[in-house]
Amino acid sequence: MTKIAVVGGGAWGTALADLLARKGGVESVTLWAREPEVVDSINREHVNHVFLPGATLGPTLRASGDLESVVREADVVVSSAPSHVVRDVMARASSVLRRGALVVSVSKGLEPERLATPSCVLGEVLPRGAQLAVLSGPSFAQEVYQRQPTAVVAAARDHAVARRVQQVFSTSHFRVYSHTDTIGVELGGALKNVIALAAGILEGLGLGHNTRAALITRGLAEITRLGVALGAEPATFAGLAGMGDLILTATGPLSRNHSLGVELGRGVSLHQALAGRASVAEGVNTARAAVSLGARHRVELPIAEQVAAVLFSGKPPRKAVGDLMERELKAEQWGGGGGGGE
To answer: If you write DSSP's letter for every residue of 246-258 in order, what string do you get?
Structure first.
């Protein structure tokens, strides 16, 4: 029987912990949360009132604020903390991680300071012998909790590890495909949040379907260019972790990044829009990180650059759209690394 630890009590971590606890065939599923009120509400009422309100969780799911006790002896550890704290949290967990444990990263973002993907961070802080994989794709936490049919992708350098993740997570309503392009799967999950912010901004400005379709298509080309420059496979971005997650996050009303963008497009400042939000909108930090990565690898990222200008330089959203449309005219190019432009 398998012992599973889920590290991170946000909406996504909670939904996955619930999925695993209800699946059966496991000895225990324990969720670590930093917030005492989350731990208390899960253990007393089987509800995460802070991050997944109104969702009654599986009766066998337990929560704890003691990270070491949750991770110790776990066969599978799901790393679901926000990307900017993954290093600190999982470095603490690594001291008690059992040899040969399967660690599955489900965070969707980039480490702001070092511009690293979550799996790269885990590779630096986890002990040798840990089996590392990532899980990503179009998957709103609320709909996964509701058991709506969902398809995602698990990636690991060793395909056998990815197949093990398939076995751990797959259910009749949660289908997991396997892949070996870890960097591509992670970048797709991170960078789509920036395009989702842009899509929300367009909606907030009152722009229509033509504009959104152009943004999503050229946004995917932008993600692909950067991904290929970083060693990813171009085809990965046409799959669930690329196009699939981008479409969901750029159009779905449950997207935190999209809804934040809508507020920005309506003239609300970033500070005001973030005030009172319990959940992290990963696209904010990722926008800055993406621009820095693009500059480092000489990859043109015009959409990410304009989003960052709106977020951090006070650029009016309508001016950002105008500057995108009035750029030098070019041939349509798809994917490809280097400086290929929009």
So the answer is: HHHHHH-TT-HHH
pLDDT tens track, the chain, 342 positions: 799 999 999 999 999 999 999 998 889 999 999 999 999 999 999 999 999 999 999 999 999 999 999 999 899 999 999 999 999 999 999 999 999 999 999 999 999 889 999 999 999 999 988 999 999 999 999 999 999 999 999 999 999 999 999 999 999 999 999 999 999 999 999 999 999 999 999 999 999 999 999 999 999 999 999 999 999 999 999 999 999 999 999 999 899 999 999 999 999 999 999 987 777 788 999 999 999 999 999 999 999 999 999 999 999 999 999 999 999 888 887 655 444 455
Distance CA 207, CA 205 (A): 6
How many Å apart are CA 116 and CA 108, to the nearest integer?
12
**Known catalytic residues?**
192
The tokens for 27 are 């000895």
Measured on CA atoms in the order 184, 90, 254, 29, is the torsion positive or negative?
positive
Among 303, 288, 298, which residue's Cα sits nearest to residue 336? 298
In 10 A of CB 77, how many CB atoms?
Answer: 27
Strands 47-48, 62-64: pairing is unpaired
The tally of CA atoms less than 13 A away on the side-chain side of residue 336 is: 9
- Relative to beta strand 47-48, strand 52-56 is antiparallel
Give me the half-sphere count of Cα atoms (radius 13 Å) on the Cβ side of residue 101.
Answer: 26
Tokens of 179: 């892949």
Residue 51's alpha-carbon distances to 11, 47, 142, in angstroms, are 5, 9, 10
- For residue 201, what are its two tokens? 């901004």
Residue 184, classified by CB atoms within 10 Å of its CB into exposed (0-12), middle (13-18) or buried (19+), is buried
Give 165: exposed, middle or buried? Use CB within 10 Å, 0-12, 13-18, 19+: buried
**Domains in the chain, start-ordered, CATH in brackets?**
2-180 (3.40.50.720), 183-325 (1.10.1040.10)
Q: What is the pTM of this model?
A: 0.94
Tokens matching residue 331: 């041939």
Label the pairing between strands 131-136 and 150-155.
Answer: antiparallel
